[in-house]
């Protein structure tokens, strides 16, 4: 029956059926063939989304959308430019740094790419930067959006793996910083090879002025994460605080959104949330089915029979994560892979928090690997460049991010993780 389930799933995917429906329909048909009472399906769907931690998902999505549509991203870019714009190819570093700043606000790779791209792309073109390379760097920087907390994929993983959201958030800082440093290093090398110009002259006064202007946006992660780590509120409560703070800043401080804009953002965020929740609900049925058929244990034993070397096994796990990210959207891949791979890595002595970072970083890389490469599509839309050009230019940054992933896997102590 397991073979039937996976065959049906891939057939539905090849036919272009949305992921949530493909998961639900294939599992439903497999259970029907097994003779399992279908009441189980509705029970497990409800159970899958009946978690207080998941309240944070729609709230962080809404907070990110509110910040992305307003002037927050513009202020953050100005501050990043004041810090590093004076360097040769400084706008490349600004792209990465602005992506890291916005990552600490949005929790979304696509939102980070859109916010930073729409602000920086005109300036990059004006300064003579190679358009496809600049767009690919912004798309690659967007992957940091789901690694530096707050992070929607981390919340989903925490619910599935029954781990602490706060611990995952705390563990995400150094890997996210490593991703940013890797991308910035590659960007600097390219800047010297292509003789990119220097940007804004260094000025302490400019730094102070832009810092004051960006302080409302920079305060967001301090309030959210400071509140979580100090125990003032839970991650779910922090998400609600983030929404209220985003509304305050957008409506009354920068005054860059109208009530009509807020209404449209609410509708768009609700649609995004409904898609994610449907994926979680149908994947809960899939997870229950695989567990009841003891599939994760069988997979773990099969992989362990191939090699007793944990380094080789983890390389296989990384390959599976990266390959899945190529074809399946991040949240869906996370929900499908976690119940299957977690029992395997725990047998190797890998801490579940450490594995959470491995799978989140691995699937974040999938955001820039076609055909399912949401950040590339967003970058293409923002820059009006063909997807093919951006895809060719993404390769150096892709290799840099994969190198960071291997550091997370094999040298976790460098990034503050326990192996």
Automatic annotation (TrEMBL):
Keywords from the named record: Cell inner membrane, Cell membrane, Membrane, Transmembrane, Transmembrane helix, Transport
Transmembrane portions of the chain: 46-64, 76-94, 134-160, 172-192, 213-232, 238-254, 266-291, 311-342, 354-374, 394-417
GO cellular component, one term: plasma membrane
GO molecular function, one term: transmembrane transporter activity
Pfam families: DctM (PF06808)
Protein's membrane topology: Multi-pass membrane protein
Annotated ranges, domain TRAP C4-dicarboxylate transport system permease DctM subunit: 6-412
Main location: membrane
Keyword Cell inner membrane: yes
Compartments in which it is found: Cell inner membrane
InterPro entries for the chain: DctM, TRAP_DctM
Complex and partners: The complex comprises the extracytoplasmic solute receptor protein and the two transmembrane proteins.
NCBIfam families attached to this UniProt entry: dctM
Family of the protein in this entry: Belongs to the TRAP transporter large permease family.
Record function comment: Part of the tripartite ATP-independent periplasmic (TRAP) transport system.
Name of the protein described by the UniProt record: TRAP transporter large permease protein
Organism this protein belongs to: Halomonas aestuarii
């Amino acid at each position: 029956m397991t073979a039937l389930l996976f065959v049906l799933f891939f057939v539905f995917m090849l036919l272009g059926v949305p992921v949530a429906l493909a998961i639900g329909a294939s599992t439903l048909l497999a259970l029907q063939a097994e003779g399992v009472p279908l009441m189980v399906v509705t029970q497990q769907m409800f159970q899958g989304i009946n978690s207080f931690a998941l309240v944070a998902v729609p709230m962080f999505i809404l907070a990110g959308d509110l910040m992305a549509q307003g002037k927050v991203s513009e202020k953050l870019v100005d501050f990043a430019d004041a810090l590093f714009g004076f360097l040769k190819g400084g706008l490349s570093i600004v792209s990465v740094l602005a992506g890291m700043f916005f990552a600490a606000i949005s929790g979304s790779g696509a939102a980070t790419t859109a916010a930073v791209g729409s602000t920086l792309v005109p300036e990059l073109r004006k300064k003579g930067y190679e358009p496809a390379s600049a767009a690919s760097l912004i798309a690659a920087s967007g992957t940091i959006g789901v690694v530096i907390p707050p992070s929607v994929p981390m919340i989903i993983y925490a619910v599935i793996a029954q781990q602490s959201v706060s611990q995952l958030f705390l563990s995400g800082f150094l890997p996210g910083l490593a991703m940013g440093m890797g991308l910035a290093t590659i960007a600097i090398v390219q800047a010297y090879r292509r003789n990119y110009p220097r940007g804004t002259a260094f000025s302490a006064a400019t730094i102070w002025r832009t810092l004051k202007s960006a302080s409302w946006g920079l305060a967001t992660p301090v309030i959210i994460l400071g509140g979580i780590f100090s125990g003032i509120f839970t991650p779910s409560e922090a998400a609600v605080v983030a929404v209220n703070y985003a509304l305050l800043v957008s409506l009354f401080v920068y005054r860059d959104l109208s009530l009509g804009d807020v209404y449209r953002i609410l509708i768009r965020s609700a649609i995004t949330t409904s898609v994610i929740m449907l994926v979680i609900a149908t994947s809960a049925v899939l997870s229950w089915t695989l567990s009841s058929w003891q599939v994760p244990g069988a997979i773990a034993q099969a992989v362990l029979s191939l090699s007793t070397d944990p380094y080789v096994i983890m390389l296989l796990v990384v390959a599976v994560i990266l390959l899945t990210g190529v074809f399946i959207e991040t949240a869906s891949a996370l929900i499908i892979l976690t119940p299957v791979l977690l029992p395997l890595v725990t047998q190797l002595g890998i801490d579940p928090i450490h594995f959470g970072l491995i799978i989140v970083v691995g699937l974040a890389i999938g955001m820039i690997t076609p055909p399912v490469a949401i950040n590339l599509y967003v970058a293409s839309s923002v820059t009006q460049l063909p997807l093919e050009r951006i895809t060719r230019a993404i390769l150096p940054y892709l290799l840099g991010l994969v190198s960071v992933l291997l550091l997370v896997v094999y040298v976790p102590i460098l990034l503050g993780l326990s192996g």
